[in-house]
Amino acid sequence: MRRGSSPRGPLSRQLRRTARDAALADEVATLSGVFSHVGVIAEPAHLTGKRRGNCVLLASQRPLPDGIDRALRSDAVSVRLARRDRVLALARAGTVLGGD
C-alpha cells in the first residue's frame, strides 16, 4: 500500500460499503497497520452499517490536512469525516488484510 502513496500527501481509496459487511473495518484496520493517520469520509448511516454507499478512506504518515471536515460540512451532500474514536473502533473491529 505504501507504494501508492506519496510522502507529500495522503493516500485515498474509495470503498463501496454494504450494510453489515466487514470490508470497511478490514480496510481501516489494514491502513492503520501501515499508516500513522487514517480517516474515513462517509455519510453517518454508512459508518453504522444502516445504509449502503461509498466511503472514502484517507491514510498518511503525516497528519491529515486541517479543515477537511469543515469543507465537507459546507457541501450539499451529508458526508462527514469520521471522528477519531470511530476510526479507532473500526480498526479494532477489522482484520488486517494480506497482500497489496
Task: Quickly count the domains.
Answer: 1
The number of distinct β-strands equals: 4
The coarse overall form would be: globular
> Which stretches are poorly predicted, pLDDT < 50 over at least 5 residues?
none
Radius of gyration: 13 Å
Measured by DSSP, the beta-strand proportion falls in: 15-25%
**How many separate helices?**
4
Between the first and last Cα atoms, what is the distance in angstroms?
A: 6 Å
For the biggest sheet, the summary is:
4 strands, antiparallel
Summarize the helix and strand pattern as letters. Answer: EHEHEHEH
Helix content: 25-40%
Summarize model confidence as the mean pLDDT: 83
Major beta sheet, strand line-up: 1-3-2-4
Structural class: alpha+beta
Describe this structure in words.
The radius of gyration is 13 Å and the shape is globular. α1 crosses α4. The protein contains four helices and four strands, in the order βαβαβαβα. It is 32% helix and 23% strand.
Label this structure with key terms:
alpha+beta, four-stranded antiparallel β-sheet, 23% strand, globular
Please give the structural blueprint.
Elements: E1 11-17, H1 23-34, E2 37-42, H2 44-47, E3 53-60, H3 68-73, E4 80-81, H4 84-93
Antiparallel strand pairs: 1-3, 2-3, 2-4
Helix pairs in contact: 1-4
